[in-house]
Amino acid sequence: MNEPDGGMRSGLTFLECCEIVRAEGLHMVRPSSDASGRYDLCEPFEQGSGWIWLDAVTANVVCQVYGALSPERQEQFKNLPAGVILNFCWKIVEKAP
User: Fold this and answer.
1) What is the pLDDT of residues 19-49, one digit of tens each?
2) Is the distance from CB of 54 to CB of 28 less than 8 angstroms?
3) Sign of the CA dihedral with 63 first, then 13, 19, and 55 last
4) Alpha-carbon span 10 to 29, nearest angstrom
5) Which of 79, 86, 97, 32 is nearest to 55 (CA)?
6) With bands split at pLDDT 50, 70 and 90, how would you rate the model's confidence at 68?
7) Residue 74: other Cβ atoms inside 10 A
8) Annotated domain spans of the chain
9) Is the pLDDT of residue 2 over 70?
10) Which SS3 state, helix, strand or coil, does residue 16 take?
11) Binning pLDDT at 50, 70 and 90, where does residue 6 land?
12) Going edge to edge, which strands form the sheet with 9-12?
């Protein structure tokens, strides 16, 4: 994980982004221009356009779903793109009692 000046972290999986946000709170995320399937993460309000909010509630849902998966499924889950992870997690949440 690279953390240059300005607090931006780059080259993260989406799951790593969620783990950071779960621990530290609201951040902004975007697909990395340096590595396919990886993401950049920064503190709120630190960057310009092309960034979206990643809140702690969403990050917590992703981390909880990940934790409930079997080890084999966790390995597959780790490298999925953000859109796939989020769609999967929210479908799980919608089906919960």
Assistant:
1) 999 999 999 999 998 888 899 999 988 777 8
2) yes
3) negative
4) 10
5) 86
6) very high
7) 13
8) 9-95
9) no
10) helix
11) low
12) 9-12, 39-42, 27-31, 52-54
